[in-house]
Every structure is written in structure tokens, then in C-alpha cells.
Amino acid sequence: MDSSSKEKKQQLNKELGLRIKEARKNAKLTQEQLSEYLNVNTQFISDLERGICGPSLITLSEISSILGVTTDYLIKGQPSHKQTETSYSLIIGSRQYILTKEEFDIMEKNVDSLLSAFRITSR
Predict the structure, then answer these.
(1) Cα(2)–Cα(85) distance, rounded to whole angstroms?
(2) In the predicted model, is pLDDT for residue 37 greater than 60?
(3) Is the separation of the CB atoms in 45 and 51 below 8 Å?
(4) Do 54 and 13 contact (CB within 8 A), yes or no?
(5) Is 15 helix (H, G, I), strand (E, B) or coil?
(6) Mean pLDDT of the chain
(7) Of 1, 9, 18, 67, which one's alpha carbon is 20 to 30 angstroms from that of 92?
(8) Distance separating alpha carbons of residues 106 and 109, to the nearest angstrom
């Protein structure tokens, strides 16, 4: 790979990393939480977000699904009709749901009620 190609790849990784970081924060996830969902170590997420490395296609697809954005957005920065600024990713067990703010608020209220009814406290 010539130096021009390396520089282009590094720039793409940096841009991708910034979008992953932004989408992760919008999904209200920490690097630790994202790494757990992907079954990778936290350092890998940090390296991705800083553009040190790039994800495999499978990992990129998993990241987009978890964060509730499209792979097009992560790669090119182009939002699609599937993505909104007010989408929330809710993961229960191995299932993931993309919710609007209103749906998320309703779910949060119901979960809080259930936890209270069962006298379960958050950590």
C-alpha cells in the first residue's frame, strides 16, 4: 500500500471513529457497555473511536445495529430515513430495539415501575 492510500485509510478510520463515538454517545452508551455488547475489550472501542484501527464488516454491522444507525451513516456520514437524532437503542438480553424518545420514555417509566414493584434497586 503506497503512502497516499495509507493516509486515505487513516483519514477514513478517523472519520468513522468520530461517527461511532457520536452515535455511541447519542445512544447513551459508554465504551465499556458497547464493548460488552460486541464482546470485545474496551481498548478496541477506544482505538476505533480514535481512528487507530477500523472494524471488520461484521463488527461494523453489529455496531450500527447496537447504536441504531445505518452503516452508510458510519462510513459516509450520510443519514438515512432509518436514522433520527431522537432514536434510542434499547437492548434486553440479546434483543435490540430502536425506539423514539417518546417510546423510550414510556419503556423507562414501565421498567421503573416493575423494578419498584419487585423492590429491585439500581446499582
Answers:
(1) 38
(2) yes
(3) no
(4) yes
(5) helix
(6) 86
(7) 18
(8) 5
Q: State the Cα–Cα distance between residues 11 and 61, nearest whole angstrom.
A: 20
Q: What are phi and psi of 68, to 5 degrees?
A: 75, 30
Contacts of 74 (CB under 8 A, 6+ apart): 16, 19, 20, 23, 60, 63, 64
Q: Give the model's confidence band at 104: pLDDT under 50 very low, under 70 low, under 90 confident, else very high.
A: confident
CB 74 within 8 A of CB 50: no
Torsion of CA 80, 92, 26, 87, to 10 degrees: 40
Higher-scoring residue by pLDDT: 90, 18: 18
What is the predicted pLDDT for the residue at 81? Answer: 46
Query: To 5 degrees, how large is the angle CA 22–CA 1–CA 58?
Result: 40
CA within 13 Å, CB half, 37: 26
Total number of residues shown for the chain: 123
AA letter at 12: L
